From TrEMBL:
This is Hydrolase, TatD family. GO terms for cellular component: cytosol. PANTHER family: D-AMINOACYL-TRNA DEACYLASE. The keyword Ion transport does not apply. NCBIfam families: YchF/TatD family DNA exonuclease. GO terms for molecular function: DNA nuclease activity; hydrolase activity, acting on ester bonds; metal ion binding. Keywords: Hydrolase, Metal-binding.
Length: 265
């Protein structure tokens, strides 16, 4: 049975990898629609890509933009960049601030700048009553980024957002859920066995799904790019883990995403 009405909460139609293969955002969206994807969030990661995300969102009624500066880029920008992000966030199709967060995977050299930039963009989200789309990545099996982010969320009283492409343990997922966050899973769930226990023990009403396209395609497409059209594979895998029907996962994750991102639509 085909799945329909899916919401891909995190992809990058604005990524240069699609430009390199001469594929337009409209073509990607059309293919996604044919596979059952109804809504797509197009995520910015710097000023330029955030502008592009809005432009592409305006080309399709069911594509929305999320604007922000990725933690790995944050040290490259001045205070003016955050003012631009706030201006962009006032655009009609913008439904969140992101992707923002902390990334110490390769180095924590710019930890101070990342924390400052994270807090500034959280403040923009709160000012405009928008959810945050959060990227948290640490060195393998280290979870210091979660500790820092959790303290920031508590300090800033952040209650509306999603931890995207979750890779951490169940313990931390539940801590973020207690604050009001959703937890989103991408195609890693199709080949990282340790994530299955996390998905299994998180309530369906706190789950979101994403492709994180063009990154990390699902099994069996691991050697190519990822596309929003692959979202049904992720939904099916989660349904198998939770021992429910595909349609139940599809409906719940869509409803969750609509509550978080589309309250004004």
């Amino acid at each position: 049975m085909n799945i329909s009405g899916l919401y891909d909460t995190h992809c990058h139609l604005n990524d240069n990898r699609f430009i390199d293969i001469d594929m337009t955002s409209n073509e990607i969206v059309f293919e996604a629609k044919r596979s059952g994807v109804k809504y797509i969030n197009n995520i910015g990661y710097d000023v330029k890509s955030s502008k592009t995300a809005i432009f592409q969102a305006n080309l399709s009624p069911n594509v929305f933009a999320v604007v922000g500066i990725h933690p790995s880029q944050i040290h490259l920008y001045s205070e003016q960049a955050f003012q631009i992000i706030e201006e962009l966030a006032n655009s009609n199709k913008v439904v969140g601030i992101g992707e923002i967060g902390l990334d110490f995977f390769e180095t924590n050299k710019y930890e101070k700048e990342q924390i400052q930039g994270f807090k500034k963009q959280i403040e923009i989200a709160q000012k405009l009553d928008l959810p945050v789309v959060v990227h948290l990545r640490d060195a393998t099996k280290h979870f210091r980024v979660y500790e820092i982010a959790y303290k920031i969320f508590k300090e800033k009283r952040v209650k509306k957002g999603v931890i995207h492409a979750y890779r951490g343990p169940l313990e931390w997922a539940l801590k973020f859920i207690e604050l009001g966050f959703y937890i989103s899973f991408d195609a890693a769930i199709t080949h990282e066995i340790e994530l299955e226990q996390v998905v299994k023990n998180i309530s369906l009403n706190k789950l979101l799904v994403e492709t994180n396209s063009p990154f990390l395609p699902p099994t069996p497409y691991k050697k190519g790019l990822s596309y929003p059209k692959y979202l049904p594979l992720i939904v099916k895998h989660i349904a198998k883990i939770k021992k429910v029907s595909d349609s139940i996962v599809a409906e719940n994750t869509k409803n969750n995403a609509e509550r978080l991102f589309l309250r004004s639509y």
